[in-house]
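Thread: Newbie trying to understand structure tokens

Hi all, I'm a second-year student working on a class project, and my supervisor (Dr. K.) asked me to get a predicted structure for one chain before our next meeting. I've only ever worked with sequences, so writing a 3D structure as a token string is new to me. If someone could post the tokens and maybe explain what I'm looking at, I'd be very grateful. Here's the chain:
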Amino acid sequence: MPVRQLPEQVVNRIAAGEVVERPASVVKELVENAIDAGASRIDIFTDGGGRRRIGITDDGGGMTQGDLALAVERHATSKLDDEDLLRIRTLGFRGEALPSIGAVAKLGITTRHAGEPHAWSLTVEGGVKSGIMPAALGHGTRVEVSDLFYATPARLKFLKTDRTEAEAIREVVRRLAMARPDIAFTLAGEERAPVTWAAALPGAPGRLTRLGDILGSDFRSSAIEVRAERDGVVVEGFAAAPSLTRANALGQYLFVNGRPVRDKLILGAVRAAYADYLPRDRHPVVALFVTLDAQEVDANVHPAKTEVRFRNAGLVRALIVHALKEGLAREGKRTAANTDGAAISAFRPAFAPPRPGNWDWRRSPSYPAAPLPSFEGSAAPAFAEREQRTFDVGAPSADIRFEEAPAADLLDRPLGAARTQIHDTYIVAQTRDGLIVVDQHAAHERIVYERLKASLAKNGVQRQILLIPEIVELDEATVEKLLDRAEELASFGLAIESFGPGAVAVRETPSLLGKTNAAGLLRDLAEHMAEWDEALPLERRLMHVAATMACHGSVRAGRRLKPEEMNALLREMEDTPNSGQCNHGRPTYVELKLNDIEKLFGRR
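---
Reply by user tm_fold:
Sure, no problem. This is what the structure looks like when written as tokens:
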């Protein structure tokens, strides 16, 4: 088949396939154009999940008549001052959005520049551009897209239901709204009730307000501010306390120079930072904003501009981990009960209060149904034996009760003074303004774990030399990658060297691992090569072993403690970082304020 030049319309539709994947892609491109135009308010309306209609109105700078004529031509943009693609400072710069949309849909643009006497309008249908006509518009730009993919009907078969497409649009707008809290957004449509996010104040308080409006009040109440800076790279934002988690990683948001992106970098970094706080099947909620010189990041990786590539990815990852760890350590004593009132909501009255009038206590829902005895012709007898047994509640479940008053100085401590132990597992402590219930095993587990970590950091990882080196056979590419990291792995106690093509000799292993399967360890490390910026897979494995040792070396549930032992445990918790959770992610204590307890009993 001879080589031939494709017609312009076919070229435009091919390009449109790269940029316009679904209605949400159209919304993303148009809202980004509005942001680049300096808009302070952006209104988005959709119908039929964006398939039938998309309308975007902004109060930005608008376009002149000449700019409007060029805006719908391919590779025409106002976002680049020169041809330097290494200094991208705007969200849109390819000049493909409007012509790509016009190639597969009916596109209408009405815009007014401050220097023009009136507005101008233009339409594009299936790639065919109309003439520019005078129009009426106060200021800014209004873009309407209808009958999406009518020019390429095959693409319609790949769209999902209107509700699904509308949810994808909502997610796109949410991310852009989180990136720019200084801009007011309104999202409306046939599929949903209108929602408005008002412009917020500048700085961290305004950013948290916008994040709380979008991610919910639970995030706002549990958010921890994080920040780290090094070599011109700034990482800042908010991370939820370990008490607020999700079943997946969809609650993790990354913004690079104001651009919402999806990057595996944040997933690995966040997982590493929260490794000591959460169970393996739970994921935290974070919103992180990375700011760096435009030359240090490539935004031209993907046509949809949803991915970026960092020149120094290791530095960005290290800053993310450091910022999160520092923030979590600073707020390490937050627990589930302290942040979301879960402990209070768990309490319920044992039975409903009596209604006014005649009330038979034996007919209460909490009392088993039984026929009422007849007392006619005789005085009411004493309670029958069966009824009397109702008041026999058995022996107290508290094992230790202090009769003397607690010391005043202990009441002022963060975790108060121990008052009793319940069910050989839970310590009840009294503070000035409430009470605290401590899981003795979880609390001591965290204490032992932190001691092990400190020992590792101070003395290094102790090694054990294998009497007979273990030979592990792997594919050659994997062997090369492992050997490239041999020096780094040696710092964690794993000494390896080449043993011919496709094989590695393991001569030393971390003594903390005890008798280990070296082959399995290397294969596990090879599977996590994507996270090897700081050899975290091996470090994480060591920490998992330390956590297991801490679990078996801790005060077990079911062990009776003396009063001095309970108070000593509370004091150690106060001096231990991250003591709000055990190393499996469970809370070590819950706190009930006196005001909340009084509300439970109707005193307030």
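A couple of things are worth pointing out once you decode it. Residues 400-604 form a domain with the formyl-coa transferase, domain 3 fold (CATH 3.30.1540.20). The radius of gyration is 32 Å. Feel free to ask follow-ups in this thread.
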